[in-house]
Specification:
With 509 residues, the protein is an alpha/beta fold. It contains 15 helices and 18 strands. The strands form 4 sheets. Strands 8-12-13-7-14-15-16-17 form an 8-stranded mixed sheet, sandwiched between helices. A 6-stranded parallel sheet has the order 3-2-1-4-5-6. The structure holds NADP nicotinamide-adenine-dinucleotide phosphate.
């Protein structure tokens, strides 16, 4: 993210301004951009909600969200006063098509044809059922017509399956061109995720070894210690595969596996990612039990506190078949990655909150050292840490000091926080700024989302058609179900233990 302000005046229309996403993520990010002087000089936040309310009442509500969730903490009164001057409010029922004419009137005045330079960002922080009606309302009111100056932002979930994604997408693309549609996967806004490309393509040393000749396998872990919290109504219909794998984990896989782009531009990068999606070997329904594993958390302990199982959480059905854990083995069928498995896993209530990518390198081709020196102990691997720590760890073998020859795994660590010593922007700050300047590099293109749904449909179908007989099958506070261990054990491997803050260099299970 650059430090300059977008040049044009921007009106950001926030549908669902009274909701949770707006309060927790969107408005705190806008406020931090404002503090960093990265909002346009002329910026208006037009909140839209279905209740009558004055603009100052919305501002008060949003103040609470910023105070609770912004990385900059409680706003100073003077700063907030200056920011809140930019907040406006319009009440409209988003199911009412005529209301969009009121919106156009509010944005453009009575003479909609009057040309001004204002750009419009339409942000859908609403239930997904409203995505299509909003796109249609905007389109029919003529608010999508300016292909350069009008953009629409959508949040996951983009559909529930391949068909529902296509329905939402066709409503969007009927009125907006692809270049106007910004599909958020907030993982792509994280600094460390963007750094995967910097590491791979701005350094000559990684590319020569970034292939099947040197890499044994890749493991991607996105683990949470939280349970379902207050999200049961949504999560019961979603589950881990839709909620995390369909978007975040597959995006990470693409960044690791993609070929170098010719230029750092939206289409080039997204073309290279699409090549990876295209190369992912389809999962046959008959192979689902072998290539995928699911789990649901039982009661257990998280950081010394007893926690309940998924089926005991408020809003969850007694016999829920929803998976809170999913693991997959994928193969990228291309020249670079043939026969290198990519193992993906994600879960709630796991042993630690950690997201990271491990690139496990092959063993040395010949062991010159006797077995007694400990070479067998550890594989060499490169770990890209995404959260909570942001950094890179290279785990490799070194000789222990002393007259005896003994080898031991050690860590070489790069930490973002230590190297740059500046606060990193939240993912939403990066993404909102990119939307305002019209840069879609960090957003998901339609063909990629569609390919992700297509890949996962056999797993979703088999899982929904065959309720899991063993749920709940992993204790809270552990690394997931036995079925996931078996998934990698069939290939003679283990899940690589994530690097944790408390690790001593070289610690492994
Ligand atoms: N919350 C998160 O952390 C999160 C994370 C990722 C993605 N998302 C996605 O973001 C979207 C919003 O989620 P959320 O958690 O913020 O939901 P939410 O708290 O239920 O908020 C929904 C918003 O939509 C408004 N709304 C609903 N029906 C409307 C209608 N007919 N006309 C006008 N406004 C209407 C609601 O207004 P009222 O105040 O009048 O009800 C409210 O402001 C969803 O698609 C969700 O899947 C959320």
């Amino acid at each position: 993210m650059n430090a300059r302000r977008p040049d044009q005046p921007v009106v950001l229309v926030l549908f669902g301004a009274t909701g949770d996403l707006s309060a927790r993520l969107v408005v705190p990010a806008l406020y931090n951009l404002f503090l960093a002087e990265q909002l346009p000089e002329q910026f208006t936040l037009l909140g839209v909600g279905r209740h009558e309310m004055e603009a100052h009442a919305l501002a008060d509500k949003l103040h609470e969200g910023v105070a609770n969730y912004s990385r900059s903490g409680k706003p100073a009164r003077e700063d907030w006063d200056r920011f809140s001057e930019r907040i406006d409010y319009l009440h409209m029922n988003l199911k009412d098509k005529d209301a969009f004419n009121d919106l156009r009137h509010r944005l453009q005045g009575p003479d909609a044809s009057a040309k001004d330079k204002t750009e419009y960002v339409f942000y859908m922080a609403t239930p997904p059922s409203l995505f299509a009606p909003i796109a249609e309302g905007l389109g029919e009111a003529g608010l999508a017509r300016d292909r350069k100056g009008s953009r629409i932002v959508v949040e996951k979930p983009l559909g529930h399956d391949l068909d529902s994604f296509r329905q939402i997408n066709s409503a969007l693309t009927h009125h907006f061109e692809e270049s106007q549609i910004f599909r958020i996967d907030h993982f792509l806004g994280k600094e460390t995720v963007q750094n995967i490309m910097a590491m791979r393509f701005a350094n000559p040393i990684f590319e020569p070894i970034w292939n099947r000749r040197y890499v044994d396998h890749v493991a991607i872990t996105v683990a949470e210690t939280l349970g379902v919290e207050h999200r049961a109504p949504y999560y019961e219909k979603s589950g881990a595969l839709r909620d995390m794998v369909q978007n975040h984990l597959l995006q990470l896989l693409c960044l690791v596996a993609m070929e170098p782009p010719v230029a750092y531009d939206a289409d080039d990068i997204r073309d290279r990612k699409m090549d990876v999606m295209h190369a992912l070997r389809p999962i046959d329904r008959d192979e689902v039990s072998e290539l995928a594993a699911r789990g649901q958390y039982a009661p257990g302990w998280i950081e010394g506190t007893a926690v309940s199982g998924y089926r005991q959480e408020p809003g969850v059905a007694d016999q829920s078949n929803t998976e809170t854990y999913a693991a997959l083995k994928l193969q990228v069928d291309n020249w670079r990655w043939q026969d290198v498995p990519f193992y993906l896993r994600t879960g709630k209530r796991m042993a630690a909150a950690v997201s990271e990518i491990s690139i496990r390198f092959r063993d040395v081709p010949h062991r010159a050292f006797p077995a007694s020196v400990g070479l067998n102990a550890q594989p060499v691997r490169l770990v890209i840490q995404i959260q909570p720590h942001e950094g890179i760890v290279l785990k490799f073998m070194a000789k222990e000091p002393g007259s005896q020859l003994r080898l031991r795994p050690v860590d070489m660590r790069f930490s973002y926080a230590e190297a740059f010593n500046v606060p990193t922007p939240d993912a939403y700050e990066t993404l909102l700024w990119d939307v305002m300047i019209g840069d879609a590099t960090l957003f998901m293109r339609s063909d990629q989302v569609e390919a992700a749904w297509r890949l996962l449909m056999p797993v979703l179908d088999v899982w929904s058609g065959n309720p899991a007989a063993d749920f709940p099958n992993y204790r809270s506070g552990t690394w997931g179900p036995e079925a996931a261990e078996a998934l990698v054990a069939r290939d003679g491997r283990n899940w690589l233990t994530p690097t944790l803050p408390s690790d001593r260099p070289g610690d492994e299970s």
